[in-house]
Amino acid sequence: MARITMRQAISDALQEEMRRDESVFIMGEEVGVWGGTYAVTRGFYDEFGEKRVRDTPISEMVIGGAAVGAAMNGLRPIAEFMTINFAFVAFDAIINHAAKVHYMFGGQFNCPVVFRAPGGGGRQLGATHSHTPDSIFAHFPGLVVVSPATPYDAKGLLKSAIRSNDPVMFIEHHTLYQIRGEVPEEEYLVPLGKSDVKREGSDVTIVAYAQGLQVALEAAEKLSKEGIEAEVVDLRSLRPLDIGPAVESFKKTFKAVVVEEGYGLYGIGAEIVAQLQEAGFDYLDAPIKRVSQKDVPLPYSRELEQSALINVDRVIAAVKEVL
Amino acid sequence: MDKATLLEWYQQMVLIRRFEQRCSELYQQGKIGGFLHLYIGQEAIAVGTIGARGDNDHVITAYRDHGHAIATGCNLNHTMAEMLGKSTGLSKGRGGSMHLADKEKRFWGGHGVVGAHLTLAAGIALAEQYRGTDGGVLCYFGDGATNIGYFHEALNLSKVWNLPVIWICENNEYGMGTAVQRASAVAEIKDKARGYDIPNRRVDGNNVIEVYEETSKAFEAIRNGEGPQFLEMMTYRFEGHSMGDPLRYRTKEEVEERRKRDPLTFLVGHLQENDMATEEELDEIDEAMSAKLEEAVEFAESSPFPTMDSLYDHIYADL
Question: pTM for the complete prediction?
Answer without folding.
Answer: 0.97
